[in-house]
User: Which sequence fits this backbone?
């Protein structure tokens, strides 16, 4: 049960308890105002509020957490309906006042029950009132006019049934709203995912990578923590497309992305950075560490068959370490330049930038 659901239940129960308290006060005060002293009034009120206290404790203690109706809405309403019926029974003169309490109770079930349960509570209320009418008709003389009782009963039934129909519509609207809200959240999450992910590789995209580099640069400038950036190009991508087809090449790029993900640490970032290009961020790494990591990746790529063993490929990688105060654009420009050097020198190599000079770590 979520915190929000807890709050909704407590709020509805609190409002219902306040309403019942007011009608209890109206019942007791009304009897005094009319000069009545109905037998059993104190016992009825005491028993009723003892039951309300028990239901409230049962619900608020969390014991109903896994119930279909954790707020015990049906029990609250039925218990209050019984109280109203018995109050009319012991004080017939207050009947027209307490009849309104029936209708005041029903709206609290609108959001706490399904419409069928609510409809059943309405029928129970109507049935209870009908039994009271029959009781008074058989045990009193000259007080009840059958024709008037028929009209009052019909009016009460129509009012209760109208509430049931309104409740049904409100439940349907609530369910529709909840469904649309869930669909909207899923759509929003999908849009957010698409905004930072590359569809072909499943990796984070260039926009996210650039934003992450900005954050990493700020951390490095503040704490002096080094980091390494690499741009990695798939060698001879156009030739691979011509030879194997676009679908197989896309499968290869996706599998290569997975290889990079499992090879790197969780704190590192790998992203798609254009067609056939990947960006790598090694946090807390120096250029020497970066060279070793990227060389290991280069070797793994050459040894791994992709797309069900159909495609064998290699990568050209440019590796640079962040220099204090340089911009992200300058950093990426250096990485791009060294990746281009690796491609121009035949590919399948890692070109590392050591303090402004390029070095080739491997070639096959």
Assistant:
């Amino acid at each position: 049960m979520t915190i929000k659901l807890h709050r909704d239940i407590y709020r509805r129960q609190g409002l219902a308890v306040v309403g019942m308290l007011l009608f209890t006060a109206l019942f007791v005060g009304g009897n005094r105002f009319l000069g009545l002293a109905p037998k059993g009034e104190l016992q009825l009120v005491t028993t009723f509020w003892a039951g309300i206290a028990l239901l409230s404790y049962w619900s608020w203690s969390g014991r109903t957490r896994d119930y279909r109706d954790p707020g015990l809405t049906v029990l609250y309403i039925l218990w209050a309906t019984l109280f109203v019926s018995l109050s009319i029974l012991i004080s017939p003169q207050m009947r027209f006042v307490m009849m309104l309490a029936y209708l005041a109770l029903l709206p609290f079930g609108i959001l706490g029950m399904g419409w069928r349960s609510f409809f059943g509570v309405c029928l129970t209320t109507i049935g209870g009132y009908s039994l009271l009418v029959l009781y008074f008709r058989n045990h009193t003389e000259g007080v009840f006019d059958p024709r008037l009782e028929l009209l009052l009963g019909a009016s009460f039934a129509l009012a209760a049934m109208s509430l049931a129909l309104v409740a049904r519509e409100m439940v349907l609207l609530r369910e529709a709203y909840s469904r649309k809200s869930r669909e909207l959240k899923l759509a929003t999450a999908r849009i957010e995912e698409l905004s930072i992910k590359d569809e072909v590789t499943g990796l984070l995209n260039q926009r996210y990578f650039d934003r992450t580099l900005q954050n990493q640069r700020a951390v490095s400038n503040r704490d002096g923590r080094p980091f390494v950036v690499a741009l990695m190009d798939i060698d001879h991508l156009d030739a691979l497309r011509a030879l194997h087809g676009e679908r197989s090449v896309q499968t290869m790029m996706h599998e290569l992305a997975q290889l990079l993900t499992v090879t790197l640490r969780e704190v590192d970032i790998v992203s798609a950075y254009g067609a056939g290009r990947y960006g790598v961020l090694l946090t807390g790494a120096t250029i020497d560490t970066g060279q070793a990591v990227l060389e290991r990746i280069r070797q793994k790529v050459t040894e791994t068959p992709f797309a069900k063993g159909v495609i064998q490929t290699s990568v050209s990688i440019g590796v640079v370490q962040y220099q204090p105060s340089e911009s992200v654009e300058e950093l990426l420009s250096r990485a791009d330049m060294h990746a281009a050097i690796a491609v121009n020198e035949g590919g399948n190599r890692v070109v590392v930038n050591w303090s402004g000079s390029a070095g080739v770590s491997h070639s096959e």
Observations:
- Residues 3-189 form one domain.
- The longest helix spans residues 146-196.
- The beta strands are 227-234, 269-272, 277-283, 315-321, 349-354, 357-363.
- The chain has a mean pLDDT of 83.
